[in-house]
Amino acid sequence: MKTDRYLPVKRPTVNIPKPVIPEPQKLVFSFKFYDDKHKTSKNVTFRNPYPIYLLKQLKEMENWTVEIFKGQQKAKTFRVHPIDWTAKSVAFNGFGLKKEYNENAWQFTVSGNKYGRVHGFFIEHIFHVVWLDPKHKVYPRR
Q1: Is residue 82 part of a domain?
Q2: Is residue 45 part of a domain?
Q3: CB 53 within 8 A of CB 115
Q4: In the chain, what percentage of residues exceed pLDDT 70?
Q5: Across the strands, what pairs with 48?
Q6: Distance between CA 142 and CA 140 in Å, rounded?
Q7: How many structural domains comprise the chain?
Q8: 2 in a domain, yes or no?
Q9: Order of strands across the sheet with 80-82?
Q10: pTM for this structure?
Q11: What is the C-alpha to C-alpha distance for residues 69 and 62, in angstroms, rounded to an integer?
Q12: What does the pLDDT look like over 39-72, one tens digit per residue?
């Protein structure tokens, strides 16, 4: 019996899964590197209303991604920016930790400028708080 070599061949179906695009990770705050001995955080008093505003700000920000956080640089009601340790207006030259941490250093305001700032650095989506600065000691007012 002669077979026709041009007959269609039935091939098995291959189900290729759709690619899964991961959701952007939300900000997480860590106090692993918090330094309560440093000038900025030393003697920070947690009297009203400072802790209330600090916790409200952290609560609001936990719904943000790193991109949203960094995108706030132009916002008028919320100040956030990288820390330039070489700037004349900065009172310190780093956290005193690994160089990489200083290179990823950021600060944000607690409530406008009224209740100071929080300084820390990013490792992926985790913001590691190093200093609480209610009296603006990192960027002292002139």
Answers
A1: yes
A2: yes
A3: yes
A4: 86
A5: none
A6: 6
A7: 1
A8: no
A9: 28-30, 126-133, 117-123, 105-109, 80-82
A10: 0.78
A11: 10
A12: 877 767 766 677 888 888 899 898 999 999 988 8
Assigned domain for 13 exists: no
Instruction: Output the 3-class SS for the chain.
Output: CCCCCCCCCCCCCCCCCCCCCCCCCECEEECCCCCCCCCCCCCCCCCCCHHHHHHHHHHHHCCCEHHHHHHHHHCCCCCEEECCCCCCCCCCCCCCCCHHHHHCEEEEECCCCCCCEEEEEEECCEEEEEEEECCCCCCCCC
Q: Which tokens is 127 given?
A: 């913001």
Cα–Cα distance measured from residue 91 to residue 104, given in angstroms and rounded to the nearest whole number: 18
Q: Which long-range contacts (CB under 8 A, 24 or more apart) does 93-99 make?
A: 95/33, 95/35, 95/119, 95/121, 95/130, 95/131, 96/35, 96/38, 97/33, 97/130
What single-letter amino acid sits at 93?
N
Residue 121 lies in domain? 30-133
